[in-house]
Design goal:
Elements: H1 3-9, E1 35-39, H2 42-51, H3 54-64, E2 72-76, H4 79-88, E3 93-97, E4 99-100, E5 103-104, H5 105-115, E6 121-126, H6 129-137, E7 145-149, H7 154-175, E8 180-184, H8 188-210, H9 216-222, E9 228-232, H10 235-245, E10 249-255, E11 258-260, E12 263-265, H11 268-279, E13 285-289, H12 294-301, E14 304-307, H13 313-324, E15 330-334, E16 339-344, H14 347-353, H15 359-367, H16 370-377, H17 381-387, H18 398-416, E17 422-423, E18 435-438, H19 445-459, E19 469-472, E20 476-479, H20 481-490, H21 494-497, H22 503-512, H23 520-528, E21 534-540, E22 556-559, H24 566-583, H25 587-595, E23 605-611, E24 615-617, E25 620-622, E26 625-630, E27 646-651, H26 655-658, E28 664-666, H27 680-686, E29 690-695, E30 711-715, H28 716-722, E31 729-733, E32 738-740, E33 748-751, H29 754-757, H30 764-779, E34 783-790, E35 799-808, E36 828-832, E37 835-836, E38 839-841, E39 846-850, H31 860-876, E40 881-886, E41 908-914, H32 928-935, E42 939-943, E43 951-952, H33 954-958, E44 964-965, E45 969-973, E46 980-983, E47 988-992
Helix pairs in contact: 7-8, 8-13, 10-11, 16-17, 22-24, 23-24
């Protein structure tokens, strides 16, 4: 059953947007024993060392059990030295042997306690009947615990953990939900023996349970939530502990003969058990006694019994703990035959077993509260708390309980896998894993942004904030940079990669190379949990950094996921990964590295592998629409404000936007005020005419430097046939020359997003305002967000809002105040009132401009090569220039502008997009090319003289002799540097004549 359907059945238990991982494990075990003062004579010290080097043994024991912060032991052999160390050092625990030079250990303990009342003191003594009798007569008021040294270094660990448990109990148990067990035993000899056994069992089982945590860091933290052991030596202490912590007690281990008040009672353990059973009839209790007749009493009151001196006591204790305290794997029992039916070693396995579990077994475990205990013992406190007070009577039948458990655990696992970077593990990976890393190196800039986005979605509870909408990042796996390093080194690729050769030659060598064999199992697991196509993107060390953006520099590939031939999918995936690696060393990448003063062989490449968002339509795949949102708008119109942000939308894959295609551009604060939709003529002219989709034919993906080799460029009527534009299109009524905001009419379909922008049929603006505000505050910077939205084919499923990328917009404004309010045009070569940038741009004496007299967009492709030749000369001379030309620079559609890449114009410092009377193109926004220009502090100006937007004195430039001129472009060089000023506040810019 879908979670949304389950939620309707149980409105009071809607976990879909609940933050289950609300236990902050960093707050547990805050008080630790880090320094232990050991007071003993030389013989006792020798005895301890003979039995095993204490520091080494403790360290090894900590490491083997997955514990951290092993304590340091400081040894002294006299009272005088003890006080000296207490004064010099912050001591957390004092352990004193009884035979100390020139001192009585009990008197010394009282003196220490008097001065250092917060420091716990433990007396440690060799075992003998005489010593035990002597201790019984001593004043032990200053000593917290007395233990017998039996030659087992595990005892020291147990002592330390017992003291730590006591120090942290009130906070960790009562405030954080940590569980505890109570041990009631008055025999020093016996609890000195049994405590190390109990602790080792708890540590080992907790370590196994912690494997479910997403990564090593969280596994270590979760170990802090292991059950605590509380020691009581009489009835009154035991009752106090139970009353105080009853809500969080996993079980009780008790002797039978011990004191009630001041008198020994031979049946004290029986009485304690009876009292506890009245409070909680299902509380697991184990009686430990050397008196065999007590077994009958235990059976009468329904508690377990073990003889104190049973030979296999460790095994008996372990079996009781696993079965009754639910530590370790969960064993589903047939209650009639008392036989194990099946076993769940993890929460994942538990969920998978629930659908087919016999009703009798499920009812038995629910009634006995076993499931809650098991979850608590694994430190899954948030999930356990949801079941704690539910009984069988709260449901109509057992099947309803089963569905509820599946729903709750499923919701928890979905939430637990979000907002964290998991380390890939074959045994735990499944479709609940949203973000996983393969390898041990860096994950790269793009991956870091995705992980941060996932964290924000969880932190601000955005995932299910809007009804029937799921906000998420795509399911993602990261190949860390160490995989790239290994790939480069094992195939000896650096030598050829750094050569000045064609991109195709580099790609060929990379594709022929072998990927590390260790990653293939992980890749296969990833693609096995999805049928969606796979996107393979770069995630370099430098990419998307705050100060050196590399957006769009490296390649992105998409491949089909061949459901009935995963082996073929793996082959395509491997080729795509190697192609992304190769793109690090392409010509354009090297040019960008040079422009940003980075060293190419220092770049480290991670790879993002993720599901593509969208629907299947015959043999193609694409989302309902894609978008790019920026939290700052450099071109506000009307009542829009710069800080309102700007969004570009397009049907299909986002390539249409980043390549500079025609899109719907709007301010999220004013979605209905869309300039392109303000008139019929504008809508017909400026609405999207084509869209991109992924070709699902495996043969369409071929190794190529062209990452779009299997991307289809389709007409809008293709999408109409697919039925994918119902939510985003309008219809042009030719007869009445009007646009109707619906697809139900006959006529040409136009991509207007009118239903969303005008009538809010989907809360796009609210979501974007919400997320951009959160992202901006948390990154402390303006941001750019790439996203895809997919409307499901079946209405019962949620609409998916998939955030593909978030990155900071690097501020291009320099801290220089410029005022261009009183500029006279006669002194200018060019004036713009739509400018991006700020400050004075110096050392510019060259202007390269496209000649407008005979301009036609048919020649735009030819112009690229001409500009490339000129650009290389500027690079060789280490100079910059001003570039002026009509249309959108960098557009892949040559009808809209000159289709340059960054490497063709990388030496330009000022770029101007100009419109002509017969060639109007809106300023390009939302493209990687545009983002990188602004990030590199290349001033970006727009002029449209025909619309009285700006001024360009081309006649003035034409009056100068050209350094270079051909049929398309002209290069003019001045004798001195030009004065170029940009006022970021007013968006004005001026290029002054050199004489002014």
């Amino acid at each position: 059953m879908e979670n949304s359907e389950q939620a309707k059945l149980y409105p009071n238990f809607d976990f879909s947007n609940h933050d289950f991982q609300d236990t902050n494990f960093t707050k547990l075990m805050k008080k630790r024993i880090l320094k232990v003062l050991l007071i003993c004579n030389n013989y006792d010290n020798f005895m301890l060392e003979e039995d095993g080097r204490i520091d080494e043994q403790i360290f090894n024991e900590y490491m083997s059990l997955g514990l951290r912060y092993p304590p340091m032991f400081i040894r002294v052999d006299s009272a005088e030295k003890a006080f000296q160390k207490l004064e010099e050092t912050d001591i957390d625990l004092v352990i004193t042997m009884l035979n100390i030079k020139n001192a009585n250990a009990f008197e010394l303990s009282r003196q220490i306690k008097k001065q250092y009342d917060k420091i716990p003191i433990v007396a440690l003594t060799p075992f003998s009947r005489e010593i035990m009798l002597k201790i019984e007569k001593e004043d032990l008021s200053a000593i917290d615990h007395v233990f017998c040294w039996l030659g087992n270094p595990d005892l020291l660990l147990a002592i330390i953990k017992l003291v730590e448990d006591k120090m942290n109990a009130a906070h960790d148990i009562l405030e954080m939900g940590v569980q505890a067990v109570i041990l009631v035993e008055d025999s020093i000899r016996y609890y000195s023996s049994i405590l190390p056994i109990l602790y080792k069992i708890f540590f080992v089982q907790s370590k196994r349970a912690a494997v479910e945590a997403p990564n090593e860091h969280l596994r270590n933290l979760r170990m802090r939530g292991r059950p605590k052991i509380m020691l009581a030596t009489n009835y009154n202490q035991a009752l106090d502990l139970f009353n105080k912590y009853s809500e969080n007690i996993l079980g009780v281990f008790s002797d039978v003969r011990f004191k009630i008040d001041e008198n020994i009672d031979p049946k004290a353990g029986i009485k304690l058990s009876e009292h506890i059973k009245k409070v909680d009839e299902f509380m697991p209790i184990l009686l430990l006694s050397s008196e065999a007749e007590n077994k009958e009493y235990a059976e009468k009151i329904g508690v377990d019994f073990i003889g104190k001196y049973t030979k296999n006591i460790s095994l008996e204790l372990r079996n009781f703990i696993i079965k009754n305290l639910q530590l370790g794997s969960f064993h589903f029992y047939d209650p009639k035959q008392d036989k194990i039916i099946c076993t769940a070693s993890s929460l994942k396995a538990f969920q998978e077993l629930l659908p087919n579990l016999p009703e009798s077994s499920l009812e038995f475990h629910v009634k006995q509260n076993h499931i809650t205990k098991w979850l608590n013992s694994r430190s899954l406190f948030a999930l356990a708390s949801k079941f704690k007070y539910l009984t069988v009577n709260d449901f109509k039948n057992i099947e309803e309980i089963r569905r509820f458990l599946i729903y709750a655990i499923s919701s928890y696992r979905q939430n637990a896998g979000r907002g964290v970077i998991t380390t890939f593990e074959q045994s735990t990976f499944d479709d609940y894993t949203i973000f996983t890393r393969i390898g041990e190196g860096y994950i790269g800039g793009k991956a870091r942004g995705l992980a941060f986005t996932d964290l924000l979605i969880k932190k601000y509870k955005l995932r299910k904030k809007y009804p029937n909408i799921t906000i998420s990042i795509p399911r993602t796996a990261i190949l860390c940079t160490d995989i790239f390093d290994e790939f480069m080194e094992m195939n000896e690729l650096y030598e050829i990669a750094l050569l000045d050769i064609k991109d195709e030659e580099i790609l060929e060598k990379f594709v022929q190379a072998r990927l590390p064999s260790r990653i293939y199992t992980s890749l296969y697991s990833f693609i096995s949990y999805s049928n969606n196509p796979i996107a393979v993107r770069s995630s370099s060390r430098l990419e998307d950094s705050h100060y050196q953006p590399f957006a769009g520099v490296y390649s992105t590939y998409m491949i089909p996921n061949i459901v009935d031939n995963k082996h073929h999918t793996i082959e395509l995936l491997a080729q795509a990964i190697k192609s992304v690696y190769a793109s690090v060393f392409y010509k354009e990448s090297k040019a960008y590295m040079t422009a940003t003063s980075n060293v190419i062989d220092e770049e480290k490449m991670g790879v993002v592998i993720q599901d593509v968002c969208g629907n299947f339509y015959d043999n193609k795949f694409y989302p309902t629409f894609s978008g790019v949102a920026r939290s700052i708008n450099f071109y506000p119109i009307g009542n829009e404000k710069s800080e309102d942000g700007i969004v570009n939308l397009a049907l299909g894959l986002g390539k249409h936007i980043v390549d500079g295609g025609k899109t719907i551009r709007f301010s999220p604060k004013h979605p209905a005020n869309t300039l392109q939709l303000s008139s019929v003529d504008l809508t017909l002219r400026d609405s999207q005419k084509s869209f991109y989709a992924l070709d699902l034919d495996p043969k369409s993906f071929k190794v190529s430097t062209n990452e779009d080799v299997n991307i289809l460029n389709l007409e809008i009527n293709d999408a109409e046939k697919d039925g994918s534009i119902n939510h985003i299109a309008s219809t042009y009524d030719f007869e009445n020359n009007m646009i109707k905001d619906s697809v139900l009419y006959q006529g040409q379909k136009l991509i207007t997003f009118a239903g969303i922008l005008k009538y809010n049929t989907f809360p796009l603006s609210e979501i974007l305002i919400d997320f951009m505000d959160i992202g901006k505050r948390n990154m402390n910077n303006n941001i750019e967000v790439e996203f895809a939205v997919n409307f499901p084919k079946e209405a019962k499923n949620d609409i998916v809002f998939s955030i593909l990328q978030i990155r900071p917009i690097v501020d291009s404004e320099e801290n220089i105040s410029i005022n261009l309010d009183n500029v006279e045009l006669k002194n200018c070569i060019l004036f713009s009132d739509s400018a991006l940038g700020n400050g004075q741009y110096k050392n510019l004496a060259d202007i390269v401009y496209v000649k407008t007299e005979s301009f036609t967009s048919l020649n735009n492709v030819k112009i690229v090569d001409k500009l490339d030749v000129l650009n290389k000369k500027f690079i060789e001379e280490n100079k910059n220039y001003i570039l002026i030309g009509p249309g959108r620079w960098g557009s892949s559609d040559h009808a809209l502008g000159i289709p340059v890449k960054w490497s063709n114009i990388s030496a330009s410092r000022i770029i101007i997009e100009s419109g002509l009377t017969n060639y109007r193109v809106d300023p390009s926004q939302g493209t990687h090319f545009f983002h990188n220009l602004t990030s590199l502090k290349v001033a970006y100006l727009t002029i449209n003289e025909y619309a009285n937007q700006g001024f360009f004195n081309s006649e003035y430039l034409n009056s100068f002799d050209a350094v270079y001129e051909d049929e398309f472009i002209r290069h003019v060089k001045f004798n001195k540097n030009l004065k170029v000023e940009v006022d970021g506040k007013s968006s004005k810019a001026v290029i002054f004549k050199p004489e002014n």
